[in-house]
Amino acid sequence: MKNILIKVIFVMFLIISPAYAVTFDVLVLPADLFNTKENYYYFDEPSEIFANDIISSFNATNGKIKSPLLPEIRAGFNKNQELKKETDNALKQFKNKNKIDYQLFKKAGENFDCKSVLIISSSVKTNQNTPKRSIWEVLEITSAFDITYPYKLETSIVLLDTVNDLVMWSNNFTARIGDNTNNFNAKNYAQANEKLEKIKLYSKNIIAPSVSQNITLRFFPKTIRPVKENFENTGGNPLRFEKNIPEKPKSDKSQKEEFYGDMIYEF
Questions:
Q1: 241-251 burial, b if ≥16 CB within 10 A, otherwise e?
Q2: Model confidence over 24-50: pLDDT tens digits?
Q3: DSSP 3-state assignment of 168?
Q4: Structure pTM?
């Protein structure tokens, strides 16, 4: 009886022992990491707002996923100005051209003891022929010239496995930022601040929960599904990794699983 009790205690120790717990360290890099609050309103850029909430969600997973805070990340880069400059250039390449510099992001991850890197980029476009702009830049322009246009905030988020140079998960979120008449302007600071609060709600209610949940499932999948040949990646299979950012799949009514990569959140 005594031997059985000892075995039971030993097994329970193995289960609850921190030494056997798996923790994934993720470095979260908003594309505007090094140029925040440069807008007219002195507001945080959306990518930074999203990053802060996602980091909080990661660090609330009871040790499953850990991520350094943005002030810690900036402090770390400030100690290595060369790496800071290289990372800033890589983030701009991702934001403007959707290009991933795997070697650089691997180097950045190693600087923080992280083997996974999450990149977040947000910008506003009116159509395919217009340049990407900051949401606060757009707000300033529309407010000054009373421009009416169905602006959308587009956010691209990519999780990189820097060990194998792979995209583990990616998603694109779209949010309409105007009212029902497509107006997106503010005549004073208080009205502009209302827009900021809506961005924060969008981050807490839509972006952070979705990203945290999906990435947690990538690291801790509930079910293991085999990858079929000619399988088209939709970002839904936890075992399917790609070298490039997967594109949103075309509409297929016969497809049972819904695609959650293009989420609409109307203000």
A1: beeebbeeeee
A2: 999 999 999 998 888 889 999 999 999
A3: strand
A4: 0.78
116 is written with which tokens?
């996974």
Task: Break the chain into its structural domains and give their ranges.
Answer: 23-217
Task: State residue 2 phi and psi, 5-degree precision.
Answer: -65, -40
Which class is 23-217 in CATH? Answer: alpha beta
Strand 24-30 with 65-66, pairing: parallel
**Closest by alpha carbon to 27, among 215, 263, 240?**
215
Per-residue exposure over 6-26, b if at least 16 CB sit within 10 Å of its own CB, e if not: eeeeeeeeeeeeeeeeeebeb
Classify residue 261 as exposed, middle or buried by CB count within 10 Å of its CB (0-12, 13-18, 19+). buried
Q: Which residues pair with 155 in a beta bridge?
A: 122, 173
Q: Which residue has the tokens 């601040």?
A: 193
Rounded CA-CA distance 177/195 in Å is 8
